[in-house]
Amino acid sequence: MGKTPTADPIRTLSRKDRDKMQVQVTGQVPHKFVDSLPCTYFVSVASAINAELFTYPLDLTKTRLQVQGEIAAATEGLSTAPHRGMVKTALGIVKEEGLFKLWQGILPAIYRHSIYSGIRIVIYEYLKENVLTKEKDGTFPLWKSAVNGCTAGAIGQFIASPADLVKVQIQMEGKRRLLGKPPRIKTANAAFAKIYKEGGIRGLWKGAVPNVNRAALVNLGDLSTYDYAKRAILNNTSLPDSHLCHFLSSVCAGFVASVMGTPADVIKTRIMNQPTDEKGNGLLYKNSLDCLTKTVKNEGLFALYKGFLPVWIRLAPWSLTFWMTFEQIRYVIGATSF
């Protein structure tokens, strides 16, 4: 990944602080594309796609694990499949469906990140610099970071929700075929068309509420924790703004994001995977609260953390890959450090 960046006090300043410094020195307002929001958007998307390609098999395994044992699986006869843990689920997919089935649904996942990841980072930076900004003493309180992270994640996920819906449904098709069930969808484009035909525009946002809830919680853990942890490391240790700093910050972010997001992820996956009527209404769950109640009643409280291990094992390397790629690209092009 190239040479490890060393400490650079100028680079760690915010975009606004760097602009003010340049105005004081040169008397001119700087115009750097590498520090613009459009450039930040493209860097975010590239970093997210890289992370998604690397960790997607864990996402597929997580989805299969969360759905097994639920009402939807029993209704469609999928409960006859053996119940497995994370490792056996992954190995079973390879053995029974083929190695490349671990990337089944990757295209809509890339569609999603082309929207979601770019928007969440851009909105977070905009809010951080223009709405809930630093205190007068230069510190950035955790509560402001948390609010910015939740807001950015919720907006980004709401816009990208149709692609996420298609991704989850495609991920479950391999299991249906394996059990001799007729396929509901074959391609991402066919899935979009089918969902739109059955439920219209509204149908494309089925599960949007749990989706947005999950994204808000995950970004509270990921964006906010990464930003806060990185600042804490730089301000309280001798570590420079380097790969090690990014590594430690991303590990913290991945763990907190998993703890915060797993219950909402379980609810989101089940709502998006349930069968619907001709109007696009769910046949098993009325809403997120109904799904939450039925899940706890039928399977117990800890069912909300079903799949926590694969969620964490996926989010940890995803967060690590994303943030280190993101920071390295920004370093190479000369942009401000996040």
From TrEMBL:
InterPro entries the UniProt entry points to: MCP, MCP_dom_sf, MCP_transmembrane, Mito_Metabolite_Transporter
Keyword Membrane: yes
GO terms under biological process: transmembrane transport
Solcar repeats: 35-130, 140-232, 241-332
GO CC terms, sorted: mitochondrial inner membrane
Membrane topology note: Multi-pass membrane protein
Source superkingdom: Eukaryota
Keyword field: Membrane, Mitochondrion, Mitochondrion inner membrane, Repeat, Transmembrane, Transmembrane helix, Transport
Pfam families noted in UniProt: Mito_carr
Compartment list: Mitochondrion inner membrane
PANTHER family cross-referenced by the UniProt entry: MITOCHONDRIAL DICARBOXYLATE CARRIER-RELATED
Similarity-based family: Belongs to the mitochondrial carrier (TC 2.A.29) family.
Protein name: Mitochondrial uncoupling protein 4
Encoding gene per record: SLC25A27_0
